[in-house]
Amino acid sequence: MRLYLLALNPTDSVTEGFLPAAARLGLDVTVLTDQPEAHRRSVAADVEVLECDVRDFRAVITRISTHHAPDAVFTNSDHLQTQAALAADYFGLPAKDWRATLRVKDKAQMRRHLAASGLDAVWSTELSPGQDPVSLLALDVPYPCVVKPREGVASEDVVLVEGPEELVLRCKEIQVRRPQAPLVVEEYLAGELYTLETLGDGNVRHVLSGFHTRLSAPPYFIEERLVYVPHHPEPVLEQVLAQLDALGVGFGVCHTEFVVHDGRARIIEVNYRAIGDQMDLLLRRLLDIPLFEHVLRTHLGQPLPADLGARTEGAAVVDYPCAHGAGTLTAAPAAADLVVDGVELTYRPLRAVGERHGLYHTNRDYIGVLRAVGEDQATVDRVAADYLAAQRWEITP
């Protein structure tokens, strides 16, 4: 059976998760990508890599049509969900609804759809490429508000704004960096930030678990720490699932971010793919199920079992040491795998010593990732904190 996997840059989710899972399932894999050399350096020798303009669904369909017949078309990229859905549908293969993938990728459209459904109304407006942000001053903008690219990811150019003058300034700054990107201005949703991880086959939907997210100090929204939440409270879960149903999300794997304030759950964004930044690798370990294989099976048209047999307890935390200034990384710990007081610690550097970077105010500021897994949250927190306190990261301006 032939799996076509659409990708932009290589990611841990693909190289350590989905490609090994495809091999275990006995699939022949063709990676379609606009960065073929980068993928050829990161994949096994038996994985075929072909160059393709994967942002254009027509190019994807043509590339597949002139190659081997497909049994599944899949992507874990935020940017390519609609292209993969359209290509799969063209070939009569199981796929996400392209309307749903487009609806959740376009943050303004997601807001309009949820408001029309009657489930949640968030004040928001769009700023077109080239539109003068001064035009926003004629609107009744609620402050504080959030400015972000309409189709952005990873908190890139997402910023909290306190007043009109700052709103105009921030929008102009982002327009310089992203002149072709439409922007969204929306009311700030207060509350504690959580995630919900789900997996469905179009008929059955499994709630896998979630995380409680700690963010950096305002005005930016960098995810610095995530604590495992095996079970969300039922009233909260029902609210989030109702909003996902309204958006048409139910096939394959999905990562949803939402806030809870006074018992009310409100979606921040829906990433119609697996949770990233090595969190999906952690989730597989916590649930003790073949997570990546299950995801691929849904795209092969195979139904999910009524019971995944997932482990329902456990404790975990993920910490992302961040750079707090621009410069060259001159000292940092090496990769490590340890067991301390029954807690499994996995540390992986995300920057090499000697690399020079700017300060981005996004997850591109991550210089490493620590995963800690155990049975008791207090012990996991202590062991992770002790490990981080013993390490040293130095950035030379």
What does this structure look like?
The chain folds into three domains: 2-95, Rossmann fold (3-Layer(aba) Sandwich); 123-187, ATP-grasp fold, A domain (Dna Ligase, domain 1, 2-Layer Sandwich), CATH 3.30.1490; 192-396, D-amino Acid Aminotransferase, Chain A, domain 1 (2-Layer Sandwich), CATH 3.30.470. Helices cover 29% and strands 30% of the residues. It has eleven helices and 20 strands. The strands form four sheets. Strands 13-12-9-10-11-14-19-17-16 form a nine-stranded antiparallel sheet, with helices on both faces. It has a four-stranded parallel sheet with strand order 3-2-1-4, with helices on both faces. Strands 5-8-6-7 form a four-stranded antiparallel sheet, with helices on both faces. Helix 3 packs across helix 4. The longest helix is centred in the middle third of the chain and has 14 residues, at 164-177. The radius of gyration is 21 Å and the shape is globular. The relative contact order is 0.12.
CATH domain topology of the largest domain: D-amino Acid Aminotransferase, Chain A, domain 1
What's the helical proportion of residues?
Answer: 25-40%
Radius of gyration: 21 Å
Task: Look at the helices and sheets and give the structural class.
Answer: alpha+beta
Strand content: 25-35%
User: Gap between N and C termini, in Å?
Assistant: 51 Å
Number of strands: 20
Strand order of the largest sheet: 13-12-9-10-11-14-19-17-16
Unreliable stretches, pLDDT < 50, 5 or more residues?
A: none
Shape: globular
Essential attributes:
397 residues, alpha+beta, Dna Ligase, domain 1, D-amino Acid Aminotransferase, Chain A, domain 1, four-stranded parallel β-sheet, 30% strand, globular
